[in-house]
Amino acid sequence: MNDNAEQISTFLLQVKAVKLNNENPFTWASGRKSPIYCDNRVTLSYPDIRTFIRQRFVDMIVENYGDVDVIAGVATGGIAQGALVAQELGKPFVYVRSEEKKHGLTNQIEGEIHSGQTVVVVEDLVSTGKSSLIAVHALREKGCVVKGMVAIFTYGLEVAARNFADANVELHTLTDYETLIKVAAEKEYVRDDELLSLTKWRENPELWSEQHMGAS
User: Fold this and answer.
1) Are 71 and 120 in contact (CB under 8 A)?
2) I want to staple 74 with a disulfide (CB 3.0 to 4.6 A). Which of 23, 78, 113, 209 is the partner?
3) What is the DSSP letter of 100?
4) How far apart are CA 195 and CA 187, in angstroms?
5) How far are the Cα atoms of 38, 44, 119 from residue 54, in angstroms, in the given order?
6) What is the CA radius of gyration of the chain?
7) How far apart are CA 161 and CA 45, in angstroms?
């Protein structure tokens, strides 16, 4: 794994953007239990980290997608990250809601974008990929050409890989779950037994959740 990925994982752990807790697992919106909770918006409060992430995003976009017309952020976590990237690249910025507004202009895409324009989507976190791909579908319905997506972190779940493959969307992330738990072990954020549990969760999140449903 490259140095940038390990550095970003280190940052996420340092500022507690990622929290790890095997004994008192977190409850996701889906109701499932998980030993990990990720809120990358915390990084925005640290200028040096925020800048480092922005520059790695810029490098990743230029290297993998070349020139694009528009940068799009996924609401809400990808809005600030996407705006920072668009500013650095000197590109227009829009953001995409999970659904159309229920009032006003009923927009799902906020900002000016036109059919035929090329877009890279910026996301903060990929779990199953469902919410991220809603943004891609909305942009495609607008007639845009989505070159791909970049994100700070992915859990690397098989369901996400399938969802992105089915949608024909190329995904690149700055770091991932395997790198993060490797760094967490090296820097003693977790014990060996906790590392084993984190590895088992990654292998089968559904089974892990079922086994820990009694935990709070």
Assistant:
1) yes
2) 78
3) -
4) 12
5) 18, 10, 17
6) 18
7) 30
Q: Is the dihedral of CA 16, 22, 26, 28 positive or negative?
A: positive
pLDDT digits (tens, 9 = 90+) for 36-92: 999 999 999 999 999 999 999 999 999 999 999 999 999 999 999 999 999 999 999
Q: What does the alpha-carbon distance between residue 64 and residue 77 come to, in Å, rounded to a whole number? A: 22
Instruction: Note the pTM of the prediction, 2 decimals.
Output: 0.94
Q: What's the token pair of residue 39?
A: 């809120």
Greater confidence (31 vs 5) lies with: 5
Is residue 23 scored above 90 in pLDDT? no
> Could you tell me which of 81, 82, 77 has the C-alpha nearest to residue 126?
77
Domains located in the chain, CATH noted: 3-211 (3.40.50.2020)
